[in-house]
Amino acid sequence: MTAAYQPSMLDLAADGPSLGPLAGLRRHPLSRGAWVDHLPGWVRGSDAVLDTLLADVPWRAERRAMYDAQVDVPRLLCWYAARRELPHPLLTEARAALTAHYAPELGEPFVTAGMCLYRDGHDSVAWHGDTLGRSAHTDTMVAIVSFGSPRPLLLRPRGGGAGLRFPLGHGDLVVMGGSCQRTWEHAIPKTARPVGPRVSVQFRPAGVA
Ligand SMILES: O=C(O)CCC(=O)C(=O)O
After folding, report:
1. Quick check: is 178 in a domain?
2. How many domains, in total, are found in the chain?
3. At 67, is the pLDDT very low, low, confident or very high (cuts 50, 70, 90)?
4. Which CATH number do you get for residue 131?
5. Taking CA 11 as the corner, what is the angle to CA 23 and CA 14, rounded to the nearest 5 degrees?
6. Is the CB of 37 under 6 A from ligand 1?
7. Are 153 and 174 in contact (CB under 8 A)?
8. pLDDT at 1 (0 to 100)
9. Ligand 1 pocket member 186 (CB < 6 A)
10. Which of 17, 61, 108, 141 allows an S-S link to 177, with CB 3.0 to 4.6 Å?
11. Could you tell me the distance, in angstroms and rounded to a whole number, from the CA of residue 14 to the centre of ligand 1?
12. How are beta strands 142-148 and 198-204 bridged, if at all?
């Protein structure tokens, strides 16, 4: 892993990383039963978590078919299935806190953790919804905790209409819920600005991908 990373002077935490209260989550209702919850700065002391993720996650490059060619996926990936130990204890704590907070609405735990490493502004993810599993036909939630350089998460309704943009900074939480994965799309665009690495950790219930 060679990406340059500048520790944040604003994120010094003498007692190690910790989670703030989820009471500050703000819900943004979207159209057609979709919504997004947003909580900037949920993780305090997130420099230490980012260091561990950059160093210890077995990041993999992937290729995918595009028309009749194979192209590099512009980010590195790692998938933590339900019972696989997460690479930092704060992530285990975060998953438990999210499960407890959303239990009345979601009715099941967050279990898997998908991880993406955006090495710099060339890395991105194109417009898509997470519709490979049950989310293709059922309301669900995908909770994302972001570490490292801020990148915007863009959302737009499928079929057209006004979109919106959530700046995702170091330690921020965003949760896409309701019908969001099948009625809206999301993306992390490339940027020409000089940005350092960003790691996205996405918690999902079983069978959602
Ligand atoms: O980088 C992010 O936070 C979004 C990741 C994402 O959309 C995905 O992996 O499906």
Report:
1. yes
2. 1
3. confident
4. 2.60.120.590
5. 95
6. no
7. yes
8. 45
9. yes
10. 141
11. 30
12. antiparallel
